[in-house]
């Protein structure tokens, strides 16, 4: 039975027209990356898991696509489990042994274990069970018992509690030990023994995916271009000349829930400079945005600029330094929920009335960039970090003013946060022209110590990113793709039979040599059918070279839109080609 | 502790110079794909596993990279196993029950099961064990017992045999049943019972990876571009105009053992036509090879041409139709092991002396293409299929002769097989120019029914592929990349301080607007350091714009190779740019 084919959710096939339009964007971006002195690199689609894991937070780790080891990937894991005997039996045995052997004098020690409970690494639970040293057994297993309890579902908690009380009644367990963690539950079971098996199943089900992954997967698909770039810089540091300006345009993969406009495979398009803390890099990157969007005819984009140091300075001067994240998250919502909404949220996060009062100039920081800079300077005069941020912002704004932009607008936006914990200086974001409803179409910023995680500290970087998919949608919406960009064929030669076809193929060959996208219909099918094909492919010119033309050494060109036919001598083919330009 | 970064074996980072050179090849290939009327498509990096699995043979299935399901991927599997109780105990219980309950009168039925043995699906072994109906028990488990035997290692076979003999001695098992599958082994163990546990561990270890994979992985990385293309054609059939000519340049992934020149991630670069069985497509594809390699300045490549129908015809006329594969595999080695070697191998495969005698004209089919065609025609005159192959070959050769090739050489090579089971008509292979030691740098052929596996039968396709990595190595070896192709910067402006730097940035901006790859050194570091950077980046021109130049509205250009310095007025910048061209 033939399969009905489909593709994985969150992925896309790109049709010829889409590929051509996407490449149009890529080509313009690349051209300017290059004139700005950026060099291309490419990194492998998958990296070693340890290169990626832990770099994007817990949520990121979860969204990274992992690749199964090849071959009998399960064998090692199976051997570990099975050669040590039957997992459940071992566990039962050890737990039963615990029940009879437990040292009831461990009260205080156990209490301490309970307190450390939340630090206990669940992942180690299953694996440690195999290599338990019996010396430590009583003490360790007691804490493990509690660990099991902490991850069990309510149903199994009841079993466990019930069993515990039986044990207490039988004098095998002391009440004060167990009561530390069961005190709030209702005990209405009367089972004579605890069902380890069921609890065990539950436990293993919860732990095993996380536990198993590193055993059976050592590689993972690239999640962004930044971490692989940092890895590249460290690995190739001796070949690179700093400042190193690189661009990289490659797909990344995320196991996100697919939704409108969010895909599991999508291209990132990044330009970064590492190894220079000069603010001229920020200036250049703003110019680069302006240049690219101008060349794409996407005029009137807004480049928003902020600086992490300003946000930190504000939090400092209003006395909410510890609440920087809460403060900026709230401030970031200003244009959505308004001044009152922001104030309310700040209050709810524990920022004081007086602090909010101090920050209130931020809520209506309108006016020219120069006005805003002045007010920020005043507001932050008592914060060293904040003042530095203002002076950085001022340098960038003034230099750009002096250089001029072609079509973009540069504005200060102190509410801009974008991955605050990541950026350390400038923060950029590009908004589509007014009237287009679309999120940001680009963003970036400066981050210190990009490569520190891989052992090369103190390398500052600054970079920007172009949001290909959104730029595509905006260009489509505004009709900014060049006319006929997706025309795949300039000329189709019709096929009138073997001899005529050969002559037409010769003509086609000449056209192609001159860079004309030309094709010969591959068989002498009915003319109807051949014309229909020409129409479907939207070919502007069709060439007819039948018996008569063959005898006259000529060919007829039909302009499909007007229907006008022109006869050329075969020797005049270059005249025809000249007319196509 | 910082990680020492590395990349997975078989993958590569591409440096700027490598990316630029690879893109040079891609761009030329793409340009001609387009003038030949091919349209680009792109497909997702991963496909649903069922789209890929089973399409490349067992070896291919093994080499496909599988992607772990996201989230708690193991939970379902764990639930299935564990909620049904303990796996090993169940198995033991059932096997023991088998030993005591076996119906010894089933002789003939069991014999039939044994005969069907090879049809038995190993994958079902473990899962079926859980839901065994006890009604069928004796009969089924007997065959399963043999199944276990068939997959056990020798060591466990001995255990099994030994146990079986004990069972026979005890009258629990009849000799004639067991002897069907143990007859050739030596029985020198005297264990009193069979060690199910060890056998079970061994069995599970062998089966579980294969068994487990579909449970925890539903997606897999693209293995080639052909199957995704077939899937694309079927899914998009209503949007496509046939013949559909597509090209596709994307990476593929194979879990091959990495070795020199073989990678786990590499680009494929394919052009295919589907929906036309016209031989003009073969002609075009040969022209396309010629055009691309000529444009790459890689002159003198050899395009070898064969036809599956000719190989089948030869096997037919020499009376070795059933041995077609053995015959062609041997013939394919002609230039490696010589005529005698080929004959010897054919004999060893069971091809008769007289058949080999009949085929002997093939062994020295030298001479012109026309001569070869004539001899093949004579040799194959009694085979309809063979004669058709010759006439196809003749049409292609004659048409190409009539059209002419620019720099490639087209030769008939009846020893060419290339994935014989895949191609049904023309077979192509491109060899690097003489003197370059490199395997084929391209290949392809015609395949009927490309899309049948996905439910769209009778669509003929023909396609070719360019071997990017090898073409790269050949161009590198022959020094055919354009000079300075990897120059990443045309001009570097040195930085003499804030005011001078701003003037230089203005100049840099103008240069960039004119398409010059230009950069400003980001800080006013010592001139030594700035010049060293310029040297390292191999910049041909350095611009000096110091205080004096700033005051004079001028800039100095230093040609790095000659050391010659020229002064330009800032207003003359376009003169300088003109001189760069």
Automatic annotation (TrEMBL), chains A, B:
<keyword id="KW-0547">Nucleotide-binding</keyword>
<dbReference type="GO" id="GO:0004821">
    <property type="term" value="F:histidine-tRNA ligase activity"/>
</dbReference>
<dbReference type="Pfam" id="PF13393">
    <property type="entry name" value="tRNA-synt_His"/>
</dbReference>
<dbReference type="GO" id="GO:0005737">
    <property type="term" value="C:cytoplasm"/>
</dbReference>
<dbReference type="Pfam" id="PF03129">
    <property type="entry name" value="HGTP_anticodon"/>
</dbReference>
<keyword id="KW-0963">Cytoplasm</keyword>
<keyword id="KW-0067">ATP-binding</keyword>
<dbReference type="InterPro" id="IPR004154">
    <property type="entry name" value="Anticodon-bd"/>
</dbReference>
<dbReference type="InterPro" id="IPR041715">
    <property type="entry name" value="HisRS-like_core"/>
</dbReference>
<keyword id="KW-0030">Aminoacyl-tRNA synthetase</keyword>
<dbReference type="InterPro" id="IPR015807">
    <property type="entry name" value="His-tRNA-ligase"/>
</dbReference>
<dbReference type="InterPro" id="IPR045864">
    <property type="entry name" value="aa-tRNA-synth_II/BPL/LPL"/>
</dbReference>
<dbReference type="InterPro" id="IPR006195">
    <property type="entry name" value="aa-tRNA-synth_II"/>
</dbReference>
<keyword id="KW-0648">Protein biosynthesis</keyword>
<dbReference type="GO" id="GO:0005524">
    <property type="term" value="F:ATP binding"/>
</dbReference>
<keyword id="KW-0436">Ligase</keyword>
<comment type="similarity">
    <text>Belongs to the class-II aminoacyl-tRNA synthetase family.</text>
</comment>
<dbReference type="InterPro" id="IPR036621">
    <property type="entry name" value="Anticodon-bd_dom_sf"/>
</dbReference>
<dbReference type="GO" id="GO:0006427">
    <property type="term" value="P:histidyl-tRNA aminoacylation"/>
</dbReference>
<comment type="subunit">
    <text>Homodimer.</text>
</comment>
<protein>
    <recommendedName>
        <fullName>Histidine--tRNA ligase</fullName>
        <ecNumber>6.1.1.21</ecNumber>
    </recommendedName>
</protein>
<dbReference type="InterPro" id="IPR033656">
    <property type="entry name" value="HisRS_anticodon"/>
</dbReference>
């Amino acid at each position: 039975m033939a399969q009905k084919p489909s593709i994985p959710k969150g992925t896309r096939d790109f049709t010829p027209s889409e590929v051509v339009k996407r490449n149009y964007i890529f080509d313009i971006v690349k051209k300017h990356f290059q004139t700005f002195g950026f060099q291309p690199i490419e990194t492998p689609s998958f990296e070693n898991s340890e290169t990626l894991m832990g770099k994007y937070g817990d949520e990121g780790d979860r969204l990274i696509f992992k690749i199964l080891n090849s071959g009998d990937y399960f064998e090692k894991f199976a051997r570990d489990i099975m050669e040590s005997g039957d997992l459940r039996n071992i566990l039962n045995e050890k737990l039963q042994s615990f029940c009879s052997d437990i040292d009831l004098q461990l009260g205080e020690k156990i209490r301490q274990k309970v307190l450390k409970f939340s630090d206990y690494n669940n992942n180690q639970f299953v694996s440690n069970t195999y290599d338990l040293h019996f010396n430590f057994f009583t003490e360790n297993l007691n804490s493990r018992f509690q660990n099991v309890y902490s991850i069990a579902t309510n149903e199994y908690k009841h079993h466990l509690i019930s069993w515990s009380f039986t044990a207490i009644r039988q004098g095998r367990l002391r009440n004060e030990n167990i009561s530390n963690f069961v005190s709030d539950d209702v005990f209405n079971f009367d089972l004579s023994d605890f069902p380890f098996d069921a609890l065990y199943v539950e436990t293993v089900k919860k732990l095993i995916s996380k536990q198993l992954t590193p055993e059976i997967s050592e590689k993972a698909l690239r999640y962004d271009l930044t971490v692989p770039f940092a890895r590249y810089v460290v690995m190739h540091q001796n070949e690179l000349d700093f400042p190193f300006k690189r661009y990289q345009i490659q797909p990344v993969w995320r196991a996100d829930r697919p939704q409108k406009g969010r895909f599991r495979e999508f291209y990132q398009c990044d330009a970064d400079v590492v190894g220079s803390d000069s603010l001229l890099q920020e200036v250049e990157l703003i110019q680069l945005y302006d240049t690219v969007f101008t060349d794409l005819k996407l005029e009137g984009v807004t480049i928003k600029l902020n600086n992490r140091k300003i946000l930190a300075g504000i939090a400092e001067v209003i006395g909410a330094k510890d609440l920087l994240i809460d403060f900026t998250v709230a401030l970031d919502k200003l244009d959505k929920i308004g001044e009152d909404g922001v104030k309310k949220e700040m209050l709810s996060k524990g920022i004081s009335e007086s602090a909010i009062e101090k920050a209130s100039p931020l809520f209506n920081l309108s006016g020219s960039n120069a006005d805003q800079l002045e007010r920020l300077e005043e507001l932050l005069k008592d914060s060293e970090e904040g003042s530095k941020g203002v002076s950085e912002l001022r340098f960038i704004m003034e230099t750009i003013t002096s250089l001029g932009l072609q079509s973009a607008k540069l504005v200060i936006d102190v509410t801009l946060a974008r991955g605050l914990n990541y950026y350390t200086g400038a923060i950029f974001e590009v908004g589509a022209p007014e009237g287009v409803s679309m999120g940001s179409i680009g963003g970036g910023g400066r981050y210190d110590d990009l490569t520190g995680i891989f052992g090369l500290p103190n390398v500052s970087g600054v970079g920007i990113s172009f949001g290909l998919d959104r730029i595509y949608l905006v260009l489509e919406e505004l009709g900014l793709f060049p006319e006929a960009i997706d025309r795949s064929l300039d000329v189709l030669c019709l096929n009138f039979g073997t001899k005529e076809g050969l002559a037409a193929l010769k003509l086609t060959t000449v056209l192609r040599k001159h860079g004309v996208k030309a094709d010969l219909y591959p068989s002498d099918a009915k003319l109807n059918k051949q014309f229909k094909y020409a129409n479907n492919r939207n070919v502007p010119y069709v060439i007819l070279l039948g018996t008569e033309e063959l005898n006259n050494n000529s060919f007829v060109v039909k302009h499909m839109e007007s229907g006008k036919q022109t006869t050329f001598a075969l020797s005049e083919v270059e005249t025809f080609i000249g007319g196509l330009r």
